[in-house]
Amino acid sequence: MKIGPKVYWRKTTGEIIYITSQVESPWAVETTKEQDMGFYPQLKGFDPEQVDVFKLEFDKYTEDFTHAKSYWVNPNTGKLEFSYAEGGETEPVHQSPLTDQVAELKQADLDNKEAIALLLTLVQPADA
Fold first, then answer.
1. For strand 51-55 and strand 79-84, is the pairing parallel, antiparallel, or unpaired?
2. For 67, left (φ over 0), alpha (ψ -120 to 50), or beta?
3. Using CB atoms within 10 A as the burial measure, which of 59, 82, 103, 107 is most buried?
């Protein structure tokens, strides 16, 4: 069984408190927020009402976590954002994961190619 990591974060600031490890094992079991908060030392002492959590798919954003300079959860959207190393930056600029950006660009490229193909069929003479 493959279990993806869980991201625990402060609801008010978006600060990530702890990310559990992903697990691949036939004996792996899903745990609850309450179980995790009682088990992981990094989560002990936090008010469960002030902490939120979401689960990632197995291997989701592995490359983003590896290459990012920092990451947080945008408290307004509840979505994970990453800051990547860019020359001369003094403050991190957080953005959606590059993995998601690449997927969106690939889809946009495919949509554009389909639109161009449709336009070509509309403007070409019938006897061509």
1. unpaired
2. alpha
3. 82
Q: Give the C-alpha separation, 86 to 69, whole Å.
A: 9
CA distance 118 to 61: 35
H/E run at residue 99: helix 98-123
Helix (H, G, I), strand (E, B) or coil at 35: helix
Looking at the predicted structure, is the pLDDT value of residue 128 above 60? no
Of 70-79, 89-98, 117-126, highest mean pLDDT: 70-79
Whose tokens are 């953005």? That residue is 95
CA distance 102 to 36: 33
User: 16: pLDDT confidence band, cut at 50, 70 and 90?
Assistant: very high
Rounded to the nearest angstrom, the gap between the alpha carbon of residue 16 and the centroid of all alpha carbons in its chain is: 13
What are the boundaries of each domain within the chain?
2-96, 98-128
Kindly report, residue by residue over 91-117, the tens digit of the pLDDT: 667 777 778 888 888 898 888 888 888
